[in-house]
Amino acid sequence: MGKPWVLGLTGGIGSGKSAAADAFAELGVATVDADHAARWVVEPGRPALSKIVDRFGKGILLEDGQLNRAALRERVFAEPEQRQWLEELLHPLIRDEIQQFLAAAQSPYTILVSPLLIESGQYKTVERVLVVDVPTELQLARALQRDQVPEAQLRAIMQLQLERDERLKYADDVLCNTGDKAALYEKVGRLHEYYLSLKGGQV
């Protein structure tokens, strides 16, 4: 079997990206999540974590030595130059982690799940883009229910993501996720059959 082609899967916060990725994974598709890679690169003992501590102090750690993500998020949201520093540190490390995973994948195609697939330019590294789409108010309601964070913080995260209409311009395929889990799995199953028929992600 040749090298698998890569599908980029994205969508706004609360759209159901992870649920869609899980559905593909159950069908045997290798998936890697950029958010998970972002966690791996700041595990205790990894060089990135010590650099973050050097910059922000030991108060940025939890008692067990893990990164306090909530504290770091507050700092970088409040100070754009800190966010830029953090992105410049982490993005190359995350990219390397993802590439290692994709290089080892054994399925006919693989999936890169990334909330900022388009904003970060990662979409240029994949053969095809699937956008999981829901109306903005449903997106907000789902994310509020799931994350239990203040609405203002969620809206701040959404501000960093592309507007819904803008994101859809980059889509080769759109998965409308306004229904229940069964409906989502049915749509993923149909897309999977279609993707298996593609060579290199192209029609």
TrEMBL record:
<dbReference type="InterPro" id="IPR001977">
    <property type="entry name" value="Depp_CoAkinase"/>
</dbReference>
<keyword id="KW-0067">ATP-binding</keyword>
<keyword id="KW-0418">Kinase</keyword>
<dbReference type="GO" id="GO:0004140">
    <property type="term" value="F:dephospho-CoA kinase activity"/>
</dbReference>
<dbReference type="InterPro" id="IPR027417">
    <property type="entry name" value="P-loop_NTPase"/>
</dbReference>
<keyword id="KW-0173">Coenzyme A biosynthesis</keyword>
<comment type="similarity">
    <text>Belongs to the CoaE family.</text>
</comment>
<keyword id="KW-0808">Transferase</keyword>
<feature type="binding site">
    <location>
        <begin position="14"/>
        <end position="19"/>
    </location>
    <ligand>
        <name>ATP</name>
    </ligand>
</feature>
<keyword id="KW-0963">Cytoplasm</keyword>
<dbReference type="Pfam" id="PF01121">
    <property type="entry name" value="CoaE"/>
</dbReference>
<comment type="function">
    <text>Catalyzes the phosphorylation of the 3'-hydroxyl group of dephosphocoenzyme A to form coenzyme A.</text>
</comment>
<protein>
    <recommendedName>
        <fullName>Dephospho-CoA kinase</fullName>
        <ecNumber>2.7.1.24</ecNumber>
    </recommendedName>
</protein>
<keyword id="KW-0547">Nucleotide-binding</keyword>
<comment type="pathway">
    <text>Cofactor biosynthesis; coenzyme A biosynthesis; CoA from (R)-pantothenate: step 5/5.</text>
</comment>
